[in-house]
Amino acid sequence: MPAKYAERPAPRVTGWDREPSTTDERNFTTHAALGWQAWNGMSPEQEFCEFAATMARVTGARIVIETGVGQGYTTRRLLDALRPHGGTLLAFESDAMWRGKVPLDLGDTPTGEQLAAADLTVLDSDVPVRLAEIARWRTHARAGALLLVHDCGNGHADDTPHAQIREHIESLGIAGRFLANPRGGFLGIQSAGLRQLPRSGFLPPAAGEVA
Ligand SMILES: C[S@@+](CC[C@H](N)C(=O)[O-])C[C@H]1O[C@@H](n2cnc3c(N)ncnc32)[C@H](O)[C@@H]1O
Fold first, then answer.
1. End-to-end Cα spacing for the chain
2. Strand, helix or coil at 64?
3. Cβ-proximal residues to 75 (8 Å cutoff; 6+ apart), any chain
4. Tens digits of residue pLDDT in 39-85
5. Which atom of ligand 1 is nearest to the CA of 71?
6. Ligand 1 atom 18 nearest Cα
7. d(C-alpha 74, C-alpha 79), whole Å
């Protein structure tokens, strides 16, 4: 059985004060291609964090949901990306220990109503939580909403959490594509009713849509 995230050793969290430097991702994903960087085995690749933030900025997302804040590498970049256009980050962490380390008021996992309000949802929570979040997003996200999931595998064995997440996404028939980062990712779009997409940007959420 693959090791559960919760069983892995916790690095000392200093990133909210001063982010430590990255190292070669091949220290964490032995089969990774040269050129990817990460902070440790539980952080996403630096490139994945920056991709999430660039998507938030370039799409002008007004509401972004992030789950699995953990050490906050994605969170810090999303906050920077949203600040210039006044977007809002709703960040979630299911593990009380990690929740206690970050200067944000976090819940554990988003509701369907919150997912329905998000322009972009970034999922990197503990695996059982993430599987449920992917299914909840599929049910509730509105047409044109974007989904970015970490750890969908890229050459990982069938018995890994990465393979489990990939199969789950495939089974739900979410439109999109898997990504080439070493730990794998998925970029999806809620496809039902694509004809309803506005000509530019995202529609603001209706009043009262966020719980
Ligand atoms: C891959 S981690 C999330 C990493 C996060 N996105 C970040 O930038 O640091 C997924 C989940 O595993 C749990 N977790 C357990 N041990 C952890 C560790 N050492 N570091 C970070 N998260 C850990 C947390 O609940 C976290 O939300």
1. 37
2. strand
3. 66, 69, 89, 91, 102, 104
4. 999 999 999 999 999 999 999 999 999 999 999 999 999 999 999 99
5. 9
6. 10
7. 9
16 within domain boundaries: no
User: Distance from the CA of 8 to the center of ligand 1, in angstroms?
Assistant: 10
- pTM of the predicted model over 0.70: yes
Q: Token digits for 192? A: 């039902």
CB contact at 8 A, 182 and 36: yes
Q: Distance between CA atoms of 53 and 29, rounded to whole angstroms?
A: 23
State the total domains in the chain.
1
CA distances from 39 to 100, 104, 106, 125, 176 (A): 20, 21, 23, 17, 27
Q: What is the CATH number of the domain that holds 111?
A: 3.40.50.150
User: Which has the closest alpha carbon to 54: 64, 68, 41?
Assistant: 64
| Parallel/antiparallel/unpaired status of strands 175-179 and 23-24 | unpaired
Ligand 1 is surrounded, with C-beta below 6 A, by: 5-6, 8, 10-11, 42-44, 68-74, 93-95, 98, 124-126
